[in-house]
Amino acid sequence: MSRLRSLLPCIVAGAVLATAARGRAQGALDRPTQLTLQAAVDALVARNLSVIAARYNVDLFRAQRVAAALKPEPTVTFAATQLTLPRVLAHPQYAGVAVADNSVLDTQFSVDVEKLVERGGKRELRVAQADIERQAAEARLGDELRQQTFALKQAFLSALLARDNLHVLRAALGDFERLQHLFAERVDEGYTAGVDLRRIGLELVDLQGSVTALQAGYAHGVRDVLNLIGDGDKPSPSSLAPAARAVALDVPLSDLTDPFDDEDVDVLAGDLIVQPIAASIEQVRALALENRADLRAARLELDAAEAALKLADASRARDVTVGGQYLRSGPDNAVGVAVGVPLSTGRRADAAVAQVTAAKLQADARWRQVRAQVLTDVEKAIVAYRVSRDRLRLFDGHILQQASEVRAIEQTAYQEGERGLLSLLDAQRAHNETLVSYNEARHAFALSVYQLESATGTSTTRLAGAPSSASGGSHD
């Protein structure tokens, strides 16, 4: 037992050096398979299917704008009347020949040209409404992009959290596996009882289960990211092969040869560090009211409803149809003009106005509801930011150092025979939980910053202050 305790510092030092070496190697390699957050956002803008659908919606309203600007086209009508039966059927060559002493039986050929003349400025009002609707569609495109970008960043951060926690538990797993190997040798040699070996085995089972769950969580996060950037129908990257092989073979992930190598977590590049915001609460609210695309779309929809009301009221003005006619009857030629005016437009106009008025009131209520939701999103994001910032400050207050010191003290005490294995296991477990909690705090803080970004509809560059530590506070 004394020999085992004397080897314990070497085990810990070896694990630290191995972890550091893996970190340096990973930082030195420039893997082409890694996807940064910025590259993922660029891919989302180009290939996200929801964004593409919203972009086609803008094209639809642009086409409607072109159609709204068109003037009514003239119509031409060709007619042949008074085809005398049965003479025309028996002698069709005489269809255009005059009948002697009976002009009533002469076949008449006519050409009529008519054109609708819109009055009341209907075309201009129709174009103005179409312009507003196109702008509203562009705003809805911006809002869809805002929502999809936040979903992407949320999925990206979740995957990074699983990856960082995976590193923590892998390091602990390696330490326990080496300790188990040494205990097994001591038990075989008869120097110690097997109860400590069983305790380490139970700890390994728990760690392996946690590692497997994190591996699956990382794979799920990567799949969400790939789906949001338009690659959801593509197979998983080869770096996720260990989890895929475990499912295909129906075996535990721990049964695979070296299943926890760093190569299976190299799909995403980045960390959980973001800059704190510097804008005040009033500035954040002002940014949201100014930049939120869904609020702008709701305002434009209200403007479009007002334009539609003007167009409906303009339908009271009676349109005029003017036309000209050429007529040939037998050997005679004639021309004529025509003017058409509807007898009444009042009742149809009243119905259209009532319908559009209701739509306007609906659009106004929707705009007020969206505005209230925008301010609610801002308040919730600010609360989440404050809570996550204060939680992260706890870890910046030497909590990590204290957890490492407690583990070192327990290791020394165990080496000197003053503590049992249970105390060492508790210290290691507390150290792991502290590191995982620290990663979760960084994840929550980064997510709260992106939530503020989404709530305001602006970029983090307008919210972030000068470079500082993550514990810096906002001017609130």
Task: Describe, in plain words, how this protein is organized in 3D.
The chain is about 65% helix and about 10% strand. The chain has twelve helices and four strands, in the order H-H-H-E-H-E-H-H-H-H-H-E-E-H-H-H. A four-stranded antiparallel beta sheet has the order 1-2-3-4, with no helix packed on it. Helix 3 packs antiparallel against helix 5, helix 5 packs antiparallel against helix 6 and helix 5 packs antiparallel against helix 9. The N terminus and C terminus are likely disordered.
Low-confidence stretches at least 5 residues in length (pLDDT < 50)? 1-32, 243-254, 256-264, 465-476
Q: Helix- and strand-based class?
A: alpha+beta
Biggest sheet character: 4 strands, antiparallel
User: How are strands sequenced across the largest beta sheet?
Assistant: 1-2-3-4
SSE order, as H and E?
Answer: HHHEHEHHHHHEEHHH
Total count of helical runs of at least 4 residues: 12
**CATH domain class name of the domain at 1-71 and 131-271:** Mainly Alpha
Name the quaternary structure: single chain
Average of the residue pLDDT scores: 77
User: What Rg, in angstroms, do the CA atoms define?
Assistant: 39 Å
Helical proportion? 55-70%
CATH superfamily of the domain at 1-71 and 131-271: Outer membrane efflux proteins (OEP)
Beta-strand residue fraction: 5-15%
How many strands?
4
Shape field: elongated
Tell me the CATH topology of the domain at 1-71 and 131-271: Outer membrane efflux proteins (OEP)
**CATH arch. level architecture of the domain at 1-71 and 131-271:** Up-down Bundle
| CA-CA gap between termini | 58 Å
